[in-house]
Specification:
The complex is a heterodimer of chains A (308) and B (302).
Chain A lengths: L5 H45 L20 H8 L3 H31 L5 H8 L1 H4 L2 H11 L7 H8 L15 H26 L4 H9 L4 H30 L2 H6 L9 H11 L3 H30 L1
Chain B lengths: L1 H47 L3 H4 L14 H7 L9 H32 L5 H9 L6 H19 L7 H26 L2 H9 L4 H12 L1 H17 L2 H6 L8 H9 L6 H21 L1 H11 L4
Classes of the chains: A mainly alpha (308), B mainly alpha (302).
Chain lengths: 308, 302
């Protein structure tokens, strides 16, 4: 290439760029096709479905489903289960995210100081996050078994903390609380990993300087650790909040959405695959997405602007 | 000098004093964490070795009297009265998870190479487009996916339900974006000069990818394979909607049916859960260091 004339090399350069571009499109096209076909198109199609009367009957002929305007949305909002699901979704995702980040922070601080077998402990800490959701959800349900033979009931009764067995997951209020605790138990390792990575990148000399100035543990934590962790805490909070708000499996497997734990994703499933009213289900999902997008816009305009 | 020495003494004493207290708090917190993490796993494994009498007794059995295999016989022994044929479900999960992992590695390698090394129009659109996956809840996508695939299936003559390729495709859509981000970040750490040397020596682009980039990226490729395998192995919602026949159930759906059995047998549920959990945990422990990067970079979206 170096020995060819400048004219020819110019031509080849151009064709090389074009070749590069063509190759890139070729290489990315399978991924682009799958993601567009199975995520982006369905997402747009979902808007369409939410304005049409789609049930099991006309599912095979979905494009001829009758247009019903806002009827699906009106039915969702008028549904007796809807207000509770909205409130629960917000309470559940915000409080379990806060708890997840808090426990993740404590775990990260624990693992940030050297001790024997730290590597092994760190690996163990990740188990709840790595294990299949179905396994861990059912183990927890088995631990929380309402009978006197349930292990948590047995332990608490032996300790004299309760007199009679409790039906943990079928008591309103308590069920929601336990689902929130379960979320934190399962997802704190994610927060821990992200926070730990940032903790280990903090400049040691900051702490040494503070020690020389006579700062205590708490003071160092407040004026060095927390400011250094601010961005990673914000990022973990935001990511987990989005994912928890969208989460279906955990609540569906723990309570099936009963006893005051119903949330919008489970409600969407119930409308779609319980009652087979896909239009109503799609409308619920759009409301869910709408709340999420609204939150993100407010977040971007207040929190992120405030930080600049 | 003397004054400074005294200062240091008091400082050390001060540290020594607070050290014991902080050490105590540390030990208590660590114990609390370990117990609350490990007890559920202990309970899962030990329950799977209990007999029906032990599992249904009036008080919980903390340590099984013997390693009873009742639950495992119910899952695997065809001569057992309530035989569940769980071997079939394990095989189904393998048939879904392994192709998902292999195809995801191939496709994300191609895409990630283009993103990391080549200049092309629409690159940012492509990258932002696939990131949208994070925003859409799975329950939002499953309705239109179901309707759309039913429509296409009716035209082309395939069934939407009980069709593993359909399930694999939906898992690919969920995992490819993260896999692509993980791999393209890794490819960027390989010096471009090595590849340019290959190009100058007369290798084609594909030759460079095959002979230079891939051998250098084996750790990253393995972690992408494990990550996608784990997602497909654990996935619940799509399998719940797309699988209808008992013999086609993947493990999570089978375990869900076992749990909701009118005459509950928790030891069987726990045995099946143990079987499903062990491969994932072993894979994870074997590749912990590689995987952690992926977990923090992309998250399991879970």
């Amino acid at each position: 290439m170096l020995k060819t004339s400048s004219y020819r090399s110019g031509l080849r350069w151009h064709s090389l760029r074009a070749q590069e571009s063509r190759l890139a499109w070729l290489l990315t096209s399978p991924t682009a096709l799958i993601v567009f076909g199975l995520i982006i198109f369905p997402a747009i199609f979902s808007i369409w479905i939410s304005f049409h009367d789609v049930t099991l009957r006309n599912l095979n002929d979905v494009f001829h489903a009758p247009f019903v305007g806002l009827q699906n949305y009106r039915r969702v909002i008028g549904d007796f289960a809807f207000p509770e699901a909205v409130i629960n979704s917000v309470v559940y995702s915000v409080s379990s995210t806060v708890l997840t980040v808090l426990i993740g922070l404590i775990a990260a601080l624990l693992l940030n100081r050297p001790f024997r077998a730290r590597g092994a402990v760190r690996a163990l800490f990740l188990f709840p996050y790595v294990a299949p959701i179905v396994s861990v959800a059912f183990v927890w349900r088995w631990i929380l078994d309402p009978r006197p033979s349930g292990v948590l009931n047995d332990i608490l009764m032996r300790l004299g903390l309760i007199n009679a067995p409790i039906a943990y997951l079928s008591t309103r209020g308590l069920a929601l609380l336990l689902v929130i605790v379960f979320e934190a138990w399962r997802y704190f390792p994610f927060a821990m990993l992200m926070i730990l990575a940032r903790l280990q990148a903090i400049d040691r000399t900051l702490y040494e300087a503070a020690s020389v100035d006579g700062a205590g543990v708490w003071h160092k934590f407040r004026s060095i650790t927390i400011p250094e962790l601010r961005y990673v805490l914000g990022a973990v909070f935001l990511l987990r909040l989005i994912w928890t708000f969208n989460k279906f499996d955990d609540i569906y497997l723990m309570t099936g959405g009963g006893f005051g734990t119903n949330v919008l994703p489970v409600l969407t499933y119930q409308f779609s695959f319980g009652a087979f009213n896909f239009g109503k289900g799609a409308a619920t999902a759009m409301i869910l997405l709408g709340i999420l997008v609204l939150f993100l816009l407010i977040y971007a305009n207040t929190v992120m602007k405030g930080e600049e | 000098m003397a004054g400074k020495n005294v200062d240091r003494m008091t400082l050390i004493e001060h540290i020594a004093q607070s050290f014991t207290l902080s050490k105590l708090i540390f030990a208590i917190t660590l114990t609390f964490f370990l117990v609350s993490i490990l007890f559920p796993f202990y309970w899962m494994i030990s329950s799977s070795f209990k007999s029906y009498a032990e599992i249904g007794g009036r008080a919980p059995v903390y340590v099984p009297s013997a390693l009873r295999l009742d639950a495992f016989r119910e899952l695997f022994d065809p001569n057992y009265p309530q035989f569940q044929d769980f071997g079939r479900n394990i095989l189904n999960s393998v048939q879904v998870a392994v192709p998902t992992a292999l195809i995801a590695v191939v496709l994300s390698t191609l895409g990630a190479y283009a993103v990391a090394r080549l200049r092309f129009r629409g690159k940012n659109l492509f990258l932002n487009g696939i990131l949208l996956v994070y925003l859409f809840p799975a329950v939002l996508l499953i309705i239109p996916l179901f309707a759309m695939l039913a429509q296409i299936g009716a035209r082309l003559g395939f069934r939407v339900q009980d069709n593993f390729p359909v399930l694999i495709l939906t898992y690919l859509a969920q995992t490819l974006p993260v896999a692509l981000y993980m791999l393209s970040n890794y490819f960027r750490t390989i010096p471009a000069e090595i590849e340019q040397a290959g190009l100058i020596d007369g290798c084609s682009r594909m030759g460079v990818i095959w002979r230079i980039t891939l051998p250098l990226s084996i750790p990253a490729l393995v972690s992408v394979a494990i990550y996608t395998f784990m997602i497909a192995w654990n996935e619940f919602l799509y399998a719940l909607v797309f699988l209808n026949t008992r013999t086609m159930f993947t493990m999570p759906i089978k375990i869900n049916t076992l749990f909701n059995n009118p005459s509950p047998r928790p030891h069987v549920v726990m045995a099946a859960s143990t079987i499903m959990t062990i491969p994932v945990v072993i894979l994870f422990l074997a590749l912990e260091r590689f995987l952690e990067k992926g977990l923090t970079a992309g998250g399991v979206k879970g």
